[in-house]
Structure formats: C-alpha cells, structure tokens
Sequence to fold (111 residues):
Amino acid sequence: PIEGEIEILSAPPIEKVELQVVRKEIITVPELRMEIVSEAQCCEVIVGNVERSLPVPIYCLLQKFVVCPSLETSKFKLEFILRFLIKYKDGVAGTREHYHDIPLCLKRIMV
Fold:
C-alpha cells in the first residue's frame, strides 16, 4: 500500500487531488527510442476545496493486476511514477491542472 498524508498549505480553490500510479515503458533499439506512458491506477484523495493546513490521510492499495515489479534490460525498461495531480477551480474558464511526479521502484516481496 501507499500510505501517508497530504496537507494543502495555500492554494487557489481546489476541485480535487488525485494520486495516480503511472506506468512508463521505454523501448530502446539502435535506430529507435519509444516511450509509452499510461495511467495504471488512480485514487481520489481530495474532492472539493479542503480546509488549508488540514492533514488528509492517504491509503491506496496497489492492484496486482495493474502493477508489477520495475524492470530494466538492455532494450526494455518498465518503471512506475507516483503522480499527485491537483485540479484547481478556475471560475468560468474551467479547471487548471498541476502535477508533481515521484519515481517509484516496485519490488516483489516474498513472504
């Protein structure tokens, strides 16, 4: 699981905050380098404008059918990114988005 808390100290009005697990596949051959990025899982952490300086708990289980251990070979690399996506309310214009990425190294633990 991913556990922790997020605290909004100051920001314009917020529509929602999502915690995304993003899968990134990189294929490298001498004549080509290709990256494929896709969202593997998403957890809504905050919906609506939260009170400032209020710690909001995070608990997100990683589903075993959408994530796997990180992998790297000479021609293929599979990595995951933890992305905090913040959507702001922006009046008449709709919403604005901001995100912060944190690299993840997933490993399988045998019990």
In short: The beta strands are 2-6, 14-29, 32-47, 56-60, 71-72, 76-89, 95-104. Residues 27 and 97 are 29 Å apart (CA to CA).
